[in-house]
Design goal:
The chain has 92 residues and is mainly alpha-helical. Helix content is 63%, strand content 0%. It is built from six helices and no strands. Helix 3 packs across helix 6. It is globular. The N and C termini lie far apart (50 Å).
Length: 92
């Protein structure tokens, strides 16, 4: 009976470990290309834009700190897009 409990605990640890690795995000600003029209104009974000923005959420500080990207991801339109998509702008 005790070995069954250990087996279940081991299985849960393996599954938890695999969940962590599947949620890793590759930070690539090109992933936000569906958002470019909304970042540069007053057009509302598409569902694809919101999905990509949520996916890239762990990367936003890196984008904000990058002088080449900051003007786009910190613009008033980008903040409006993030708010519409339910993604908080991080304080970096």
């Amino acid at each position: 009976m005790r070995s069954a409990a250990y087996a279940v605990a081991l299985l849960m640890m393996i599954l938890a470990g695999s969940m962590v690795t599947t949620t890793a995000v590759t930070c690539s600003v090109t992933e936000l290309s569906p958002c470019l029209p909304s970042f540069t104009s007053a057009s509302p974000p598409s569902a694809q834009c919101c999905a990509k923005l949520k996916e890239q959420k762990p990367c936003l500080c890196g984008y904000i700190k990058n002088p080449s990207l900051k003007q786009y991801v910190s613009s008033p339109n980008a903040k409006k897009v993030a708010s519409t998509c339910g993604v908080p702008i991080p304080n970096c």
